[in-house]
Amino acid sequence: MTNAIAGFMTPLGIYLIITLLHLIVPARKVTGYVTDEKTGEKMKYYLNGRRVLIISILLWAGAGLLKSELFSWLYTVRFYSLAGALTIGIIFSLYIVLSAPFSGKSFFADFYFGRLKNPQFFKGRIDAKMWLYMVGAIMLELNALSSAAYHYMKYGSQSSPGIFISAALISWFVFEYLTFEEVHLYTYDFFAERTGFKLGWGCLAFYPFFYPIALWATAALPAPGTNTLLSILYILIFFGGWTLARGANMQKFYFKTRPGKSFLGIKPETLSDGEKTLLVNGYWGLSRHINYLGEILMAAGIILSVGYPANPLPWLYPLYYVALLFPRQMADDRRCSQKYGPLWDEYESRVKYRIIPFLY
């Protein structure tokens, strides 16, 4: 019973610590892409996610050195902790929706999608979307580290290298995500989505507890045997996906912030109607949503690395991306068609593939 209560409350404690660190750790103040609906000015953000991540990992390591079982605590109480995170996600979603003016849509639509696009608190010191992404990413990292620690504490020298490879790939995923925080201010989530259950519950409960499902499903299992060539292949799949996702986002970021400048030697080519402009070469010439393919490949590399390809549970992670991103591509294409009109038709004739080059 003690573990159940402590495990249930653990996410709340971690989220509060992360929030406090976000408020007190020095941050860069940057101007984003989204326009404030009230002032008409570009929104400002305080970004220090990478610093908060590093401090959070150091706090986790320090707690483990003081009491070794704390290294694997999040894995040991994972189901109680998940229940706590699910509760926090629902409470946050209710608060962020009910505190905003009625939109005219049904309550269920408002609750799921949200009413506010870009809410900020503490005089702009905390942006809801960036806070959610940071909290979710750091909790994901701690869950991955705790799972790997549990596996090592159980099996010692007989541990599976794949568990540590998978945890390392997740760590890279989180570290580079928080390193390039500013780039994500130019992504779909910020200019097209509102803040409700989908985003709030997703970042507080789903994202940090579902993404490490490969580790949760295999950390208690013995090593399946090591195939070095396959491990290298899985790592290459991950970094191939990372190259597509990060490269595409960075090219778009450079194009939005430094028009005309080359990115990785790629000079931007565009289509324009005199008012609106679309990027049509480099990563964005391969497919209209090449970054989505990158996300799916990264997930595949992470789950394959644990070494249990026949276990169905890890496959839920990349399948989730397929279920999420393919419909999002369709929605985004509809939105772009409405926004750009004939220019988008011209773009589609130039860049024929939606996500997977030469296939889809």
Automatic annotation (TrEMBL):
Classify the protein's membrane topology as the record does: Multi-pass membrane protein
Q: Which residues form a coiled coil?
A: none
Keyword check for Secreted: no
InterPro entries in the record, alphabetically?
ERG24_DHCR-like (IPR001171)
Subcellular location, principal: membrane
Stated EC number for the protein is 1.3.1.70
Gene Ontology cellular-component terms listed: membrane
The family database entries (Pfam families) matched by this protein are listed as: ERG4_ERG24
> Which parts of the chain span the membrane according to its record?
12-31, 52-73, 79-98, 131-153, 159-178, 199-217, 229-248
Q: Which keywords belong to this entry?
A: Membrane, Oxidoreductase, Transmembrane, Transmembrane helix
GO BP terms:
sterol biosynthetic process
For molecular function, the Gene Ontology terms on record are: Delta14-sterol reductase activity
Localisation per UniProt entry: Membrane
Query: What is the similarity comment for this entry?
Result: Belongs to the ERG4/ERG24 family.
Protein name, UniProt field: Delta14-sterol reductase
This chain's source organism reads Spirochaeta isovalerica
